[in-house]
Amino acid sequence: MNEKEKPRVLIVDDNPDNLMVAASALAEHGFSLMLARSGAEAIAAADRFMPDAILLDVVMPDLDGFETCRRLKNKALCRDIPVIFLTARSEQEDVLEGFKAGGADFISKPFNREEMLHRVEVHIQRFRLQQQLQKRNEALQEEIELRRKRELQLSISERARVAMRISAGISHHFNNMFQTVLGYSELIEAAAKPDSDIVKQVRRIVAATQKTRQIVNQLANYLGNSNSESSEIQLEDVFAEIEVAFAGILPAGVSLTSSIARNCPNRVFNRTDIIQALTNIVMNSIEAMPASGGQINMKASLVHGRDYGRQIENIDAGADYIEIAVVDNGTGMEKAVLDKACEPFFTTAGNFADKNGLGLSVVQGIMHASQGFMSIDSEMGSGTVVRLLFPVSDAL
Q1: Backbone φ and ψ of 372, nearest 5°
Q2: pTM here?
Q3: Do residues 117 and 125 lie in contact, with contact meaning Cβ atoms separated by under 8 Å?
Q4: Pairing status of strand 294-304 against strand 320-328
Q5: What is the pLDDT of residues 300-342, one digit of tens each?
């Protein structure tokens, strides 16, 4: 039997002779022992030794056995350890006080060696069985929670698939109706006088229809359905197109730059999705810039899933990812805002923001459809970093 398997007993008695008598009896039967001469020593030793049982003398100076037991039971690590009192007292009041203090049993002095061994062994077996049951119960609770999360994830995934199919149909029908409205609007405008009120009203109808179509298409993107046809675009061209698109509309003092690490593969992307995602993120960064201006940098690099194992749920720790990070030194976000940043229709829009509140939620939908991941780090006064992680194996 190794030291870990040996039953451990803490013996507490202010009388050295009593200590040695009890210790010798237990040592002969293979117990691992620790001795203490006072209640204070016992409390300190229990934390270090973590015994399976405690033999505790009742009559001791300073802290008697009952008070020592109470203090042990107030410690979380010692609460379940059985305390067996050693005492020459046999009055009913003493027995009741001992049980109220948390004691498990009494052994009368002078004690019988065989009786003491039997009582100690019974309480240790019970204690160890209780510990095993507690560990099994904790493991069972973890398994139940894991299964609950898996079932919930499956339920969410199934609902997402249903929502994607429904949204695809709705988006298709709405776009047909939008096209009809826009077509008739063109006919009405062509037949009317150029500066008439009819033309002004028609143009309002066209603007409202186009805005509504944009929202419908963004909702479809959020759910992983894009009705728009798309070409492919390589990583180096992605950044170039974004920089050109924003070149003429960046506020004074705001710069937009990009960089690609040498180890980063020149991945092929779905043009519509990647441009939409980065456009939304850069627009949010611009909105977060102070009046004095700031910097926005788009960076691409090759990263490993294990680097994000604790930050991103369900990421494959053994896989490689292309990380596109948009880093700004703007005002940052409070935690309450950060927690809701990807919720559909949530917005803190100002003059430049996407006022329908679908910016980051659309990005999240695009990443879900790409089987990628998105993470956001932000602190007030320290800026924001939005990371998009695309699996390398998808398309290179």
Answers
A1: -110, -165
A2: 0.45
A3: no
A4: antiparallel
A5: 999 998 888 677 877 888 889 999 999 999 988 888 777 776 6
